[in-house]
Structure formats: C-alpha cells, structure tokens
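Internal tracking record. Fields below are filled automatically when a chain is submitted to the structure queue. Please do not edit lines marked as system-generated. If the sequence contains nonstandard residues, flag them in the REMARKS field before resubmitting.
Queue: standard
Priority: normal
Entity type: single polypeptide chain
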Amino acid sequence: MFDWDYTIGYNLTRSLQFNFRAANNYLYDDFDAADDIQIFDNFFSLGRPDHYHQTLNGTYKIPINKLPLLDFINADYTYAADFDWQASSQSYIDKIGNVIQNSNTHNLGLDVDFTKFYKNIGLTKLFRIQVAGADMISKDKIKNLKNCKNISWKSHDRGLKLMYLIGNESN
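SYSTEM-GENERATED OUTPUT FOLLOWS
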C-alpha cells in the first residue's frame, strides 16, 4: 500500500561523486478471504515489506588529463553496488524463504579527443584542406563533400590530394 523511494547524491569534490538510492515496497495482505474488509480498514497500516532495493554508485574522475602529454584523454572510474530483497508469498515462506541477491560492478571509461591529439602531434596541418592556389579544391567542391559516396587521399608530388566521388562519376 505504501512505497518509499529516496535518493541521496553528494559531490564530495569535483572529481568524486556518490549516489545512494533505496526503494521499499509494502503489501497489505493481512486478511483472510472470508474477512469482510472495508476500504478504510487498517488505512494507516503500512502492510508487510514486499520488496527492497538499494544502489550505491561512486564515480572518480581520474586526473590523467592534467599531464601535459595526455591532456586529450579523460578517464573515470565507477563503482556500483546493488542489494535486492524480495519477500516470498506468505503461504510458502516456511518452505522456501525470501530471495536476497547482491552485485557490484567496476567500470573504467576513457574518452579520447582526437582533435586535441592531432593538434598535439602536429597532424592538423597535414589534413587541412586548402581552398586557394593552383590544383587545390575549390569552395563549391568542398560543399559537395557532404553528398560523397567515396572519399580517398592520393599521394601527389606536392603532398596529399583529396579525391572524392559524388555520383556516377569516374575517378
């Protein structure tokens, strides 16, 4: 009849966060089939606990991006713990009992920003498309790149040249 669900979250620091969630479910079945019950009978009774679930999560942002050569990587570690209790039917509780289970999970996540990585090692100059100059790509052809079926790079005597196929054209 009554359910309780609450969550508490706290950021201990910018890098460390905790969350706790718990849910309680109650069931009112303290009567026999022959009983004459009314809608307001035992109205303020909570009933018996039927299900309980709790989760604890902790996340730590690993400061690997503070190192000068690894500033393009963001890493975090997450720990999650679950506990679950399920009551069995009142008619079978003496024979089988209740169900209890728990679990925990460890997770390590990495995000790599390749734009920063290419900038750090100097590859952005190599892949930059130049619009002006002889034998370079014109602005109207760059707009057509959104509709390309095939894009490839070919070696040229002055560097790399962008080759693309928009429709049924030949290379």
